[in-house]
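Ticket closed. Logging final result for Cullin family profile domain-containing protein.
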Amino acid sequence: MEIETWDSLEMVVMEFEVGWGFVEEGIRKIKNILQGRDETNFSAKAYINFYTIVYRMCSQKSPYLYDKDLYDKYKAVFEDYITSVVLPSLREKHDEFMLKELLKQWSNHRLMFRWLSRFFDHLERHYVKRSKMPSLSDVALTCFRNLVYEEVKGKAKDAVISLIDREREGEQIDKALVKNIVDIFVEIGASELDYYTEDFEKFFLKHTSAYYSRKASEWILEKSCLDYIRNAEECLKIEKDRVAQYLHYYSGEKLLKKVQRKLLIEHASQLLENEYFGFRALLHDEKVDDLSRMYRLFSKITNVLEQVSEMFKQHVVAEGTALVKQAENSASNKQVNITSLSTLKSQSFVRKVIELHNKNLAYVNDCFQNDSLFHKALREACEFFCNKNIMGSSSAELLASFCDNALKNGGGEKLSGETIEEMLETVVKLLTFIHDKDLFVEFYRKKLARRLLFERNASDEHERSFLAKLKLHCGGQLTSKLEGMVTDITLARKNQASFEEYLDSDPHVDLDLDFTVTVLTAGIWPTYKSFDVSLPAEMVTDFILPLGLFLCSHCLAKLFEFCFLFQLNCVGAFKEFYAAKTKRRKLTWIFSLGTCIVNGNFEPKTMELIVTTYQAALLLLFNTADRLSYSDIVEQLQLSENDVVRLLHSLSYARYKILTKEPNTRSISPTDVFEFNLKFTDKMRRIMIPLPLVEEKKKIIEDVDKDRRFSIDAAIVRIMKSRKVLSHQQLVTECIEQLSHMFKPDLKVIKKRIEDLITREYLERDDDNPSLFRYLA
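Final structure:
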């Protein structure tokens, strides 16, 4: 039917039957196009004419105003088309073919709505808006939903789930079809997802749970634990991809949770605790890839991940405890000599602990993706076994000895600078696990002093680098004295160069020997014994006697800034130099740190003996006597008997027997007589004669305990001064918190220090409540 132009219809009142006849002709053409019977589209002129007719019918005055009639007819058009065309075509098809037909009819429905919405645009903009009726799009959607969707939703849901199951079993399916059908479930609810969730998602998730429950039961019986884990990971990946490919993103998290529950959570204990392929077995066998896979699978499951981290902690504790037990067993072996025992304690054990820490830290960083839960587990595990004692030696002492060996010149291994730095970095990390950090610092300070004073450190750069790492991790309070010691040595070298320039520039000073002085700051260095030893004539004059032993032309003295020396001309020269350079500073000379080179004229050959000042003083006594009794030596040197015994033992019964003793026994007694051993010889021309080591550990521990009492006192006073009134429990808690970075205070000690502070009137108890303390200003 050809429609007249606007001009010919302008003044004519249009009856409803006439106008609707024109519109109905256009609707018939739309149906033919949708069913493939007409391939020609509407021209622009035709669109304008249809729009014009609807406009006239909605713009005429009553009784010729047909807007409500057109609105009803619009709805009837969709209902009629659905009833006569859509539903019959859907009812005769099933499964995937039904889905394809549904998609086709849904597409046709949307296309039909788009065309009709242009015809009835004026109705939409005026009548619908004015009367607050449902929009034309809502009417079209409601028709399809009530007539088509409600009838086929169950079949469509089952067909889609069936296709997904086929894909899960490895078949290829039409993913685009599935996506489009799922989109119908989404779009049918307009802006809401109620239809999607209630009519599809709920059933799909339930079916997925059942599917993977069956799969899990099959795999757990048929496959190994590792294969099960690999399959589970692959399934989770596939389901995640499935959401991205054709499901609504809203279902993603819920779908993965269902799969995780059925494949992982319900079988977590069985998978993790499997004897051969469980989490502990993977750690033991160092299966890095499988550990990473297991973490990825359980990382989103909070409760299970906590269980995994606890298992990791137990594994590290077991390995660390095994190292401790192994070290104790080796140390208790009677065949192990003192030297190898020392090496075991300070080197082998610490090195194994470092390897253990590095290995498990690599697991945390690489396999467990730097997860804080596993960092915490590793820290707690290391704290457990790193604070155990091994044959009476604390971890603090072992770490200090290990650092000393690593930083010592010729420490046993030729390590590159980079290797040493990495090793020291790990030591600092291990130190953070140790409770008694102050004890480590005190042991380390003793060993650092010996390295610096006797020039046994491999590199000042390594020393400073280690202190910088220590300061970064543990704070400047621990490292202030150590840094001062290294600075003192640097300044002492500059001071020695200035002293040598002073000697060269003064023609009146001629020492006739090499003389080195190291000036140090008192207070930051360990304390050393200082005796006014009675030196032999050779050590206080410039004469060299022609007897069995004489002073060589080289000597080395160590002193504190308030510290040591032995040759009078040298003493006077240095005092004069130092007094001119500084003011109001007193030098106290410490003989116990001096070193001398003494020539020994033995019958086989003359040898150079590197000895301490005290050893040299004792040896030079034999220049004036062939035999000396124990009491004679004590009387002439004027040292304590314990020191004399150490000196005599080093010279008469150690490796180098410079003196012979009567009677020839291992112990030194007051009745012994000593004689210079003229027949002594050695393949080396220069030898060093060490003194027997003095057991310093007991004194170090006592000093640390004393310092701790002062620290606890200071912390308590600091807290009470700030809080004024505090309960006993709160005071103890805050005290422990303040001191934990240095050491772990003993509760009994804190209680004693509180009582002592009460006695000294820093605190007082409340009269009514004995557990309440007040600060006394």
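The radius of gyration is 47 Å. No further action required.
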